[in-house]
């Protein structure tokens, strides 16, 4: 299965455009009263617009013909007033609609964000962050015009078109038929264009997502890129992606742009046909020139909304791809969910048991094969083994970041599947090498561990892990604002803050996955004391490649080939002269 990266396009799911549209329109239901008000305003505007040609006809065929200047002025004042009202009403309509569509975008974006937060690790494993971002930002934005124009264009223009046709037929059905003779041509033209246009816009959205994914990955790794002086390669890749993006846009737009000329052509044919039929065939003369002028205006009033409708249709097929991508994420169920009858995990002591656990990420390659072990509350277990052996996988399963295919995992005899995920994770502290810090103050970052922690508890936690001293040396101490990801602090300092964050959460079960690997020896000595305090009274799993950091573990599990190959204290394992002994010798012979 191809891995989703910025190099390849996302897969599309085939959903019906109508169903997507209806689902989108469901968000409008909440605003139905405001929308009805907007439609009422628009009906007044349409009525005024429809009256205008009648005023012109009246002015020419009646007042001008009979030389009634006073009547003409009265008619002019009336026309001016109703048209000013129309302009004001259009402003009100635009304001209300833009408010409604912005509120809907907010709602969709919130829904999407909340849903994404619930999605499991496997969702994020399978797609780049940039592509997810592109859905939350770009795709949601693309809905704005569809929502607004559905009310301001679709409904009123459709009504206008119908009303104009009725008026024309009532006034003179022969002229009406002549004016509308080119309609079938238009229908065929638009049908042909839309068939391909939607596909092309879909491709465009995917290419945009690729560009986003690349930019996100590139900026996240900018330090590595610069240190490897790989700017040239990344610029080249970026150029390629930009070209693909541009070409997909041009290809889609070129097709869309052909709709305008089709409408213009039909409009021209209709107008020519109207005058030809009116003057040549029906012999309309100077006596009823007003009728012909009114028809000329009606024909504009017919084709102009048709042009709007076709633009709207264009917009719809352009942006419906965005809606599809949003709903696809909303319809992705989280893999890891609570069963219906779960209970909240009560405060645990911290016993852990793996009972015949087998696990695979992709249902094909078995990563853990029938793993069995029991850990007593308060024990510190070190996991060692070659890279890719499955150490992180084991600890991820304890937090239930993935579900196992076979066997059971118990915490204090509670099967993980029978307790709520939230209550489980609340009692766990997980620290990885990537100790992500958020924008905000140091205090806020530590409090992330437990939102109701007091300032005193935060300081206490920082003191325990030896972070307090360096924090106090910063200009604003605990109120120092951190940059994104904690940039501006040393790696060791970031890890100390992450330790404090975990400390404040008072977890019953602690997982340190490579947590100390990038701390230099001096800092490591500093945090060692803190870590020991952190481990005290807690069941802990420590993964560290450097064997020196795990000597104090109660037991060491040597993981290899999907299972625990050896276990015991460091001393026992050395005496055994097995895998651990070899790992130990390999590391220490160079020292
Ligand atoms: N999210 C994932 N999706 C698919 N396969 C994965 C995923 N994470 C890890 N693997 C695979 O599972 C195996 C075990 O990985 P794991 O991260 O548990 O190893 P590890 O022992 O912790 O390695 P290291 O010491 O290098 O961190 C590896 O073959 C790895 O490629």
From TrEMBL:
Domain ABC transporter: residue ranges: 352-586
Coiled coil: none
UniProt xrefs under InterPro entries: AAA+_ATPase, ABC1_TM_dom, ABC1_TM_sf, ABC_transporter-like_ATP-bd, P-loop_NTPase, Type_1_exporter
Transmembrane segments annotated in the record for this chain: 31-51, 71-90, 151-170, 176-197, 281-303
Alphabetized Gene3D superfamilies for the sequence: ABC transporter type 1, transmembrane domain, P-loop containing nucleotide triphosphate hydrolases
SMART domains from the UniProt entry: AAA (SM00382)
CDD domains per record: ABC_6TM_YknV_like
Pfam families registered for this protein in UniProt: ABC_membrane, ABC_tran
Protein name (Swiss-Prot/TrEMBL): ATP-binding cassette, subfamily B
Native source species: Anaerosporobacter mobilis DSM 15930
């Amino acid at each position: 299965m191809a891995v989703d990266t910025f190099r390849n396009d996302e897969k599309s799911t085939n959903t019906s455009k109508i169903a997507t549209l209806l689902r989108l329109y469901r968000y409008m239901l909440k605003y139905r009263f405001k929308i009805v008000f907007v439609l009422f305003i628009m009906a007044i505007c349409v009525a005024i617009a429809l009256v205008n040609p009648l005023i012109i006809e009246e002015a020419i065929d009646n007042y001008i013909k009979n030389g009634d200047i006073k009547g003409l002025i009265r008619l002019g004042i009336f026309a001016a007033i109703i048209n000013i009202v129309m302009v004001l009403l259009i402003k009100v309509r635009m304001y209300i609609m833009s408010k409604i569509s912005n509120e809907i975008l907010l709602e969709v974006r919130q829904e999407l964000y909340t849903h994404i937060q619930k999605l499991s690790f496997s969702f994020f494993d399978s797609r780049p962050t940039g592509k997810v971002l592109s859905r939350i930002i770009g795709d949601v934005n693309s809905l704005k015009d569809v929502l607004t124009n559905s009310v301001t264009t679709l409904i009123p223009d459709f009504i206008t078109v119908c009303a104009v046709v009725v008026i024309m037929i009532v006034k003179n059905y022969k002229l009406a038929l002549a004016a509308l003779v080119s309609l079938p041509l238009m229908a065929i033209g638009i049908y042909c264009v839309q068939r391909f246009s939607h596909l092309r816009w879909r491709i465009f959205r995917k290419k945009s997502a690729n560009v986003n994914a690349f930019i996100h990955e590139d900026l996240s790794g900018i330090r590595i890129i610069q240190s490897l002086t790989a700017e040239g390669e990344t610029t080249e890749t970026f150029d390629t992606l930009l070209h693909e993006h541009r070409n997909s846009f041009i290809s889609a737009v070129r097709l869309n742009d052909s709709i305008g000329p089709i409408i213009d052509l039909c409009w021209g044919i209709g107008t020519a046909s109207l005058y030809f039929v009116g003057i040549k065939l029906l012999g309309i003369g100077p006596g009823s020139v007003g009728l012909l002028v009114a028809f000329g205006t009606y024909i504009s009033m017919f084709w102009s909304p048709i042009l709007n409708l076709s633009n709207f249709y264009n917009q719809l097929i352009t942006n419906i791809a965005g809606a599809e991508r949003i709903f696809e994420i909303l319809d992705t169920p989280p893999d890891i969910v609570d069963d219906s009858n779960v209970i909240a995990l009560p405060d645990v002591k911290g016993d852990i048991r793996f009972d015949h656990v087998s696990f695979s990420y992709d249902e094909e390659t078995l990563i853990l094969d029938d793993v069995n072990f029991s850990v007593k509350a308060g024990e510190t277990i070190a996991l060692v083994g070659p890279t890719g052996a499955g150490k992180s996988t084991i600890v991820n399963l304890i937090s239930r970041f993935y579900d196992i295919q076979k066997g059971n995992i118990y915490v204090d005899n509670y099967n993980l599947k029978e307790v709520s995920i939230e209550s489980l994770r609340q009692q766990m502290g997980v620290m990885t090498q990537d100790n992500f810090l958020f924008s905000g103050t140091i205090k806020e970052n530590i409090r992330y561990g437990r939102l109701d922690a007091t300032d005193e508890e935060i300081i206490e936690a920082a003191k325990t892990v030896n972070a307090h001293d360096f924090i106090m040396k910063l200009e604003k101490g605990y109120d120092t604002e951190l940059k994104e990801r904690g940039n501006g602090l040393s790696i060791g300092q970031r890890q100390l803050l992450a330790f404090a964050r975990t400390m404040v959460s008072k977890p019953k079960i602690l997982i340190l996955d490579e947590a100390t690997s990038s701390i230099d020896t001096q800092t490591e000595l500093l945090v060692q004391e803190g870590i020991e305090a952190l481990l005290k009274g807690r069941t802990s799993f420590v993964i560290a490649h450097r064997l020196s950091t795990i000597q104090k573990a109660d037991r060491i599990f040597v993981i290899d080939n999907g299972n625990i190959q050896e276990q015991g204290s460091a001393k026992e394992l050395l005496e055994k002269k097995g895998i651990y002994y070899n790992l130990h010798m390999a590391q220490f012979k160079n020292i």
